[in-house]
């Protein structure tokens, strides 16, 4: 049985109080929302904060606000809240699809939007018990000096496994970060670094308070996820796509994001640029998918063969664009939600 290490538990009632506690405790404290990622990590001694600052009793972190110019999503909304809210079933469909495919219903009832955005990076050499990791002499991400995926690498290659971040980046999301020193707004695409250890640019004293989205009027979006067991596994590859169409069907703006292929979600900027002014005919879709797949360089530190995962990138991009065009791709989506063979 893996037990939690000793820690102090704080349960502030306001965002300001939580920020003061984090500022006072420094790097020894971590915010706790649903705990579906942090608590298992603590049991494996991957993260060992001395103080946990619960955000679950802060009322201002559980709201959704819709307006003419967009919406504001508080960070402690559960993934079930988002998946079941029909107001997102428009241009923000990618977010619904991403949230509804995280883990199991029980976990989605606890897991929060902010927690999934800040999800720790994953790796076959890291997501093991303390004793297992000690037996191989630990790794660069925690307690060691060697990245066992690429021993010659100077940085950790653990993979970003958040579902909601690629979808939100495709939707042009921004986040509001709050600390006792003030607050700042950052494009979600700029929140991440391509480093498995220092994968997020949120300071230890900052709380991710809100996700900000502009109006989805005129947009369509979708999210595709690869995992072995369709019922609850982390993604080992994902593609999110969003496009705004003109009256004649030409694309006025677009974003394509590849997830779980690096230590951060990857924005396929060249592929999105190629789409501008074009309609989604077969030739355009094939060429765009090929461009998007170029940025995916998956490594052998998650499930499935890395060469095959790269091929799936192009297939997912193709299916995503076909879905945005209006094609019925339900059969293909069903195929990728079944248990896949070894």
In short:
It is built from 12 helices and 12 strands. It has helices spanning 15-25, 38-43, 79-84, 93-100, 105-108, 113-117, 130-135, 164-170, 269-275, 282-293, 306-325, 330-335, and strands at residues 8-10, 29-32, 51-54, 64-67, 70-74, 174-179, 182-187, 207-214, 219-226, 237-245, 251-259, 266-267. The strands form 3 sheets. A 5-stranded antiparallel sheet has the order 4-5-8-6-7. The protein has a 4-stranded antiparallel sheet with strand order 9-10-11-12, sandwiched between helices.
Can you describe this structure?
This protein folds into two domains: 8-58, Uridine Diphospho-n-acetylenolpyruvylglucosamine Reductase, domain 2 (2-Layer Sandwich); 59-118 and 159-335, Enolase-like, domain 1. 29% of the residues lie in helices and 20% in strands. A five-stranded antiparallel beta sheet has the order 4-5-8-6-7. It has a four-stranded antiparallel beta sheet with strand order 9-10-11-12, with helices on both faces. It starts with 7 loop residues before the first strand and ends in a 7-residue tail after the last helix. The protein has helices at residues 15-25, 38-43, 79-84, 93-100, 105-108, 113-117, 130-135, 164-170, 269-275, 282-293, 306-325, 330-335; strands spanning 8-10, 29-32, 51-54, 64-67, 70-74, 174-179, 182-187, 207-214, 219-226, 237-245, 251-259, 266-267. Strand 10 and strand 11 (251-259) form a beta hairpin. The chain is built from twelve helices and twelve strands.
């Amino acid at each position: 049985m893996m037990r939690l290490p000793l820690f102090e538990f704080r349960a502030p009632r306001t965002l300001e109080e939580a920020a003061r506690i984090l500022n006072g405790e420094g790097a020894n404290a971590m915010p706790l929302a649903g705990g579906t990622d942090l608590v298992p990590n603590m049991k494996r001694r991957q993260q060992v904060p001395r103080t946990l600052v619960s955000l679950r009793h802060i009322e201002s972190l559980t709201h959704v606000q819709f307006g003419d110019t967009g919406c504001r999503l508080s960070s402690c909304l559960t993934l079930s809240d988002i998946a079941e809210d029909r107001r997102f079933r428009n241009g923000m469909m990618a977010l619904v699809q991403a949230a509804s495919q995280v883990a199991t219903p029980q976990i989605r009832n606890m897991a929060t939007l902010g927690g999934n955005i800040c999800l720790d990076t994953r790796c076959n050499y890291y997501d093991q018990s303390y004793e297992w990791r000690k037996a191989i002499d630990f790794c660069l991400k925690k307690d060691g000096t060697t990245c066992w995926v690429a021993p010659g690498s100077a940085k950790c290659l653990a993979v970003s496994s958040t579902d909601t971040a690629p979808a939100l980046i495709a939707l042009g999301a921004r986040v509001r970060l709050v600390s006792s020193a003030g607050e700042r707004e950052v494009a979600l695409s700029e929140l991440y670094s391509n480093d498995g250890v220092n994968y997020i640019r949120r300071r230890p004293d900052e709380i991710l308070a809100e996700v900000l989205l502009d109006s989805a009027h005129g947009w369509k979006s979708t999210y595709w996820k690869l995992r072995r067991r369709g019922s609850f596994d982390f993604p080992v590859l994902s593609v999110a796509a969003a496009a705004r169409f003109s009256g004649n069907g030409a694309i006025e703006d677009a974003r394509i994001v590849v997830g779980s292929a690096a230590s951060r979600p990857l924005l396929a900027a060249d592929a999105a640029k190629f789409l501008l002014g074009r309609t989604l005919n077969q030739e355009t879709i094939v060429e765009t998918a090929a461009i998007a797949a170029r940025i995916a360089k998956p490594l052998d530190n998650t499930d499935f063969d890395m060469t095959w995962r790269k091929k799936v990138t192009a297939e997912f991009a193709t299916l995503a664009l076909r879905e945005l065009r209006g094609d019925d791709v339900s059969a293909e989506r069903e195929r990728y939600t079944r248990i896949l063979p070894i």
